[in-house]
Amino acid sequence: MSKKRVIIFGGDPAGVAAALSQAEAGNQVILVEAAPSFGGRRLPQTRIINGESGFSAVDWEAVRKHPNIRLLTNAELLKAKAADGSFHFRLRQRTPRVDPEKCNDCKACIRVCPIHMYDDFNEGLGFRTAIDFFNPSVGVYNIFKEDMPICQATCPANLDIRSYVGLIADGKYAESLAKIRERLPFALSIGRVCPHPCEGACNRGHVDEPIAICALKRFVADWEMHHDIDPPVEVPEQFHDEKVAIIGAGPAGLTCGYFLAKAGYRSVCFEAMPEPGGMFRYGIPEYRLPTPTLMREINWILEHGVELRCNTRIGKDVTFEELQRDYAAIFIGVGAWSGMKLRIPGEDLEGVVDGVKFLKDANMGKKIDARGKVIIIGGGNVAMDAARVSWREGFDEVHVLYRRTKKEMPASPWEIDAAEEEGIKFQYLVAPVEVIGDNGRMKALKCLRMQLGEPDASGRRRPVPIEGSEFVIEAETLIPAIGQRPDVAFVPDDSGLEITRWNTLDADPETFMTNVPGVFTAGDVQTGPGIAIAACAGGRKAAAGIARYIEAKRRAAA
Amino acid sequence: MYEKKGRYIVEFPDIPSERQHQIEIDVEERRRNYNEVELGFDEERALKEARRCLSCRRCLGCALCWAECKPEAIDFAMEDDIVEVEADMLIVSSGVERAQERIDDKFQLGSNLNVITDLQMERMLDEDGPSKGLVIRPYDGEVPARIGFVQSYEAAASGVHRAALCLAVNEAILLRGKLPEAEISIIAGELTGFQQEYAADLEKLADITFQEAAVVSVDAGEKAEVEVTLATAQGEECRSFDLLVLLTQPQLSAEVKKLTSAVGLEVDYANFFADGDGAALLATEKDQVQLAAQR
Fold first, then answer.
1. Which of B60, B87, B256 sits opposite A115 (nearest CB)?
2. Which of A359, A459, B145, B294 has the fewest C-beta atoms lying within 10 Å of its C-beta?
3. A43, A82, A216: residue with CB nearest B171
4. How confident is the model at residue A456 (pLDDT cuts 50, 70, 90)?
C-alpha cells in the first residue's frame, strides 16, 4: 500500500480515532477542527454502555506527538475542489493569539480576564472567560475575539452599532452621528427606511426584545436636524486632479461620491430624473421618507465636492464614451427600475401599471386616477408601499394578492401590520391568470386559488394551482409588484461591459470593478433589487476601489 | 428588591427591559395625505433604549491578560493563516451538532433554568465538565431527585431517533451510578421498536422507567420544579420533575454540509452510524471519500 495524503474533517473522537489509525498505517494525515481545540469526551450514540465509564476518551498525547499527523484547529473551510483524483482545500485558521510554545498553563490570564462569555464548550452551562483553554482535557489556550459584534457583522454596511448606541446612552449625540457617518452618509434616510437585519441578530433578543437600532440611528440624525445644527463637512485640504463620473444619484452613487470626496476625489453625478435620490426619492413613499428630509441629507453630501447634473440621461444627453474619455473612472449605480412582467394575457391594457412606476408617479406628484378598486400583486416591500400609497390616493378598496401565505411573505412584518391597520385587504394563495378588458381598458382580473406544495430551491413551499378554482375580481387598476430588474440599455454594445442573465453588471467582490478597467459598479444594478443599506455599503467599497485604481494608474504613469 | 433570576443576569431598575416604541400618527390622520407616519424617538425614549444595549463583545483587547502573562505567550498581533492543503483521500467525521433553535418554545428551554438539553447533561456528567461531574439543578445547585428525559423533536428518521434514545439511556445509566436513589424516566413518542432492539441491554435497567407519550406543555412549579403535561394513549397526564432533559435531534453541521456538497456528496446524519461494532470508516459512493462512524 502506497503512502497517501489523508485529510480528516472533525476532531471529535471518531475523527481522532480515524486520524490515529491512518497515521499508524503510514499515511500523512491532516486533521481539521472548527473549534479552538478538539471536541470533548463523548458518550456513544449507537450502543448502550455496559458497566464501563461510558465516555470515549482520546489519547491526545499520541495524536499530538505522532509525526504523521498535522493538526489544524480553529479552522474553517473556505474552498474545496476535487480534481484529477485529488482534493484541494483552502482553509482559514483563526489565530489563537497565544503562542503555545511559550504558554505554561499557569491560568493567570483566566483569573484577570474581565469578560464572562457564553461557555460554548459546556453547552452554555456557566460562563467562560475570553481567554481560556476551551477544552480542559487538551488545554490549548486561545483568545476568543470576534471581528465584530453580531449586529455589526449582520449589517450590510458593517456600521459600528455598539459604539453609536453606546454614545447615545452617554448622551453624546454628535459623536454618535459622526460614528455612523464614518461608514454611511444617509443616517436620516436609512434611519427611516431600513428593514434593519441587525435587529434580527441582536443578542438582546434572547433576553427580551432586540434593541431598536434603526430608530436610534434616526434619533441622532433627527436630533441634529431638529436643532438646526449644520452637519460638519470634512474633506481633505487638497483635492486630486482626477475626477470621477458617477451614473445615478441614488443610495449607491451618492454614497460613492461622498467617500470619494473623503479620499480627495471630486466627482460629477449624472442623474436621468429631475431630482436626485434614486429609489430614496422615487421609490420610497413620502410618508416613510419626506422629500425635505432626504434633500437635507443629499445637499450635505453634495457640499463635499460632488457635482450634480440632473435630467441628464447617459446615451442621450451625454454618451458613455465621453465619460470614459473625460473622467479617470466611472461608477455605475443606476439601480433596478424595470418591473418584472406577470406574463399573463391583457397585461398591456390601460389601468395596469407596474409597482415601481406607480410609486414614481405618486412621488412626482402626478395625478393618479384613484377610482374604484385597485389590486396589487406581490408580497414584498414594494407591494406594501404601492398598497399604502394607493390607500392614501383614495381608492375605494385596496386588495393585495399573494401566491403564498402570510408566513412566506418577504415584506417586513411591521409594514404588513401597518397596511392591515390602514384597512388594506389581503388575499393569500391567489395567483392572477388573465386581465379582462373592455375597449382597451381593464375592468376585472381572473385569478386562481393555490395550495402549498413541496419546498422549492429557496426553501419556501411552492404554490400549486387548484384545478377549476377560477374566480374574477372586478377592478379598474392593477399594480404588479413582483420584482425588478436593472435597465442597462444605456450601456453601448461596443463598451465590452458584460451583462449577466439577470440583466445586472458583474463586479469584482473586492474592488467592485467590472470587466472593463476603470468602470465600477455597485448597488441594485450589481446585486439585483436589494435593500438601501446594502447599496450604500457597495457604494462605499467601490469608492475605495476607485481610489486604489486611480492611484495605481498615477504610479504607473510616473 | 429584584427577583432572583440565577446566573448573574440581574435586572437593573434603571435599565428598562421593554423595547421602546416609536410614536406614530393615527390611521385617521393618514388618509389622502402623505404625512410622515412614524415620528421616531424623543430623547427620553432614545436614552432608555440605548441603555438596553448589552455591548456584545468577546475579547475587548483590554490587555490585562497580556500584562499578567509571565512567559509573554500572548500576542494580539498574531494573524489568521490561510492554509492550502492537498489530499488524496477525505474522511469526514460529523461531530455532534444539535440545533437548539429548532426546539419548540413550549419546552421552555432558556426560560426555565431547570430544563436542559441532552448535550448539557452529557457535559454535566463528565468529570471535565462545568460541575466536575456533579449533577445539579442549574436553578439552585440542588441535587435533583426526579429526572425526566423527554423527546423535544417532532419526528426523525429511525436511525437518528435511535441515536437520540441511545444517548439518553447512556446518560441515564451514568446518572444512576451517581444518584442511586433518583427517579429516572425516559419519555418518547415511539419506544417499542427501540426496546425490542436493545432488550438484552435494557433488561438490567429495571429502575429506569420508559413511557410512550408526547409533551403537551411545560410549566414552572412553585418550588422551581418542572411540571410536564403529557399526552399518552390513556389521555393527558401531569408529571413533576426536578430536572428535565430534552432529547434533541442530531444533525449535520453547516460546515459538514458545505464540505460534502463541495465534493459532490449527499449525506445526512444517519449516514454516519455504523451497525453494531461495524468498521470505523464507512464507504460512500465516491472512492476517495469516507465517513468516520459515530459510535
1. B60
2. A459
3. A43
4. low
Distance of CA B224 to the CA centre of its chain: 20
Which residues in A54-154 belong to E strands, given as ranges? 69-72, 75-83, 86-93, 117-118, 127-128, 131-132, 142-143
- The DSSP output letter for B148 is E
What residues of chain A lie within 8 A of the CB of B73, using their CB?
98-104, 141
Task: For A298-335, give one letter per residue: b (16+ CB within 10 A) or e.
Answer: bebbbebbbebeeebebeeebebeebbeebbbbbbbbb
Q: Beta-carbon neighbour count of residue B3 at 10 Å?
A: 6
Pairing of β A397-402 and β A425-428: parallel
The verdict on a CB contact (< 8 Å) between B46 and A219 is yes
Question: Residue A266: which of A225, A315, A301, A312 has the closest Cα?
Answer: A301
Band the pLDDT of B12: cuts 50, 70, 90. low
Distance CA A104, CA A117 (A): 23
Residue A56: count of CB within 10 angstroms of its CB = 17
- CA separation for the pair B253, B294 (Å, rounded): 14
Residue A132: what residue type? D
Q: A518 with A142: CB under 8 angstroms?
A: no
**Rounded alpha-carbon distances, angstroms, from residue A394 to A65, A117, A368, A419, A474:** 78, 54, 9, 14, 17
Mind listing the pLDDT tens digit for each residue in B119-159?
A: 999 999 998 888 888 999 988 889 999 999 999 988 778 88
- According to DSSP, the residues that pair with A425 across neighbouring strands are A399
State chain B's mean pLDDT as an integer.
Answer: 86
Q: Which of A363, A402, A367, A405 is nearest to A384 (CA)?
A: A402
Helix then strand then coil, in percent of chain B rounded to 5, is: 25, 25, 50
Residues of A in contact with B170 (CB under 8 A): 43-44, 48-49, 54
Residue A305 has pLDDT above 70, yes or no: yes
CA distance B10 to A81: 50
Give the gap in angstroms from C-alpha A103 to the nearest C-alpha of chain B: 5
Quick check: A7 and B130 CB within 8 A? no
B83–A75 CB contact, under 8 Å: yes
In terms of C-beta density within 10 A (0-12 exposed, 13-18 middle, 19 or more buried), how is residue A553 classed? middle
Determine the pLDDT at residue A212.
96
Which of A99, A141, A204 is the closest to B52 by Cβ?
A204
Gap between the Cα atoms of B238 and B220, Å rounded: 12
Q: Tell how far CA A97 is from the center of its chain.
A: 31
For residues A382 and A492, what is the distance between their CA atoms, to the nearest angstrom?
Answer: 30
Chosen for mutation from B23, B32, B48, B56 (greatest number of chain A CBs closer than 10 Å) is B56
Q: Which residues of chain B make contact with A56, given a CB cutoff of 8 A?
A: 295
Q: Which chain A positions have a beta carbon within 8 Å of B282's beta carbon? A: none
Buried b (16+ CB within 10 A) or exposed e, A75-114: bebeebebeeeebebebbbbbbbbeeeebeeeebbbebbe
Q: Which residues does chain A have within 8 Å of residue B294's beta carbon, measured at their own beta carbons?
A: 12, 14, 45-46
* Average pLDDT of the residues of chain A: 91
In this predicted model, what pLDDT tens digit does every residue of B64-83 receive, in sequence order? Answer: 888 889 999 998 888 889 99
Q: Which of A339, A468, A459, A336 is nearest to A404 (CA)?
A: A459
Nearest residue on chain B to A164, alpha-carbon basis: B50
Residue A543 to residue A240: CA distance in whole angstroms: 14
What are the cell numbers at A397? 378598496
pLDDT band at A57 (very low <50, low <70, confident <90, very high): confident
Q: What is the pLDDT of residue B7?
A: 39
* C-beta atoms surrounding B79 within 10 Å: 10
Q: Which residue of B has its CA nearest to A110?
A: B65
Question: For residue B126, what is the DSSP state?
Answer: S
